[in-house]
Design a protein that fits this description.
By secondary structure, the protein is mainly beta. The protein has one helix at residues 2-13; strands at 24-29, 33-41, 44-56, 59-68, 75-77, 83-85, 88-99, 116-126, 133-147, 152-157, 160-165, 171-192, 198-209, 214-220, 225-229, 242-252, 255-265, 276-283. Strands 7-8-9-12-13-16-17-18 form an eight-stranded antiparallel beta barrel. The chain has a four-stranded antiparallel β-sheet with strand order 1-2-3-4, with no helix packed on it. A two-stranded antiparallel ribbon has the order 5-6.
Length: 284
Amino acid sequence: MALLLATAVHAIENDTTVIKNARQVMVITNDSLQQVKVLGKENDDRYVYENTIQLVDTNYVSEERSYRDLKAIGLELNKKGCVKKHSNYLSLNFGLGVSAPTNVPEGMDLKPMKSLEAMIWALYNHTPFKGKNTFSAGLGFTARNYGLDTNQMFTKNGSTIGLGTFPEGSGSRSSRLSIGSLSVPFFFSHEFGKKSHVSLTLGPVVNFNFGGGSLTNKYKTSDEIFDYTTEATATGIGCRPITVDFMGVLRLYGIGIYMKYSPQSVLKTDRGPQFHALSFGIFF
């Protein structure tokens, strides 16, 4: 009875720690140690509470502490050293593909392997905790060009783009339209499967096109090498100043295959041949 009374008095004297809305509670027990660890609490995801009881011979040593984990900022390294998503994080994305325009007018021969696209975007991503959906918005740079078959060349008459042919007997022919853009993507992504190795991303990309684009023609004759590029002026080649693409990315183990299409023509209606941007490639 004396022992029970002493134990009861000891319990009354101990402090009570109350942690509301803990994010995770871990209890670790073995023959000589018991540890309780609580991660997060109401209005503070970085809070950590630890209580450790260690048996030493017939006695025990108790240690209690609480602190804020400064590493809990939305990025966490897993066992393989990869970045694991919690709720909010930044990502740097790269894309490289080829352009295969649609609605190309008859007689215009655009070549996909001469029409390339490159992207470098920074995305801000929000994923609800333990969720499989991610909402993203970003900012970055996109470069696109549209190259013709070696028998054709772009021409510029005043402010209008047309089609012509290279001089007879010339070599090393190259003719392309180039457009640089400040891109603002808005994406929704969903991960499939228990381990989420497959995901699908969909959304629009708003492009603010620089300086109206440029035209470059290169060819070589027996006497001279010609390399002509239009200046990046306010009128340029007459590409639309703002365009919207619709983009989809299918990812498998982090590597994505993308397709991007714009329902708007690349050039303004009265400035040259009308065709629509379509591209596909890799995205990671």
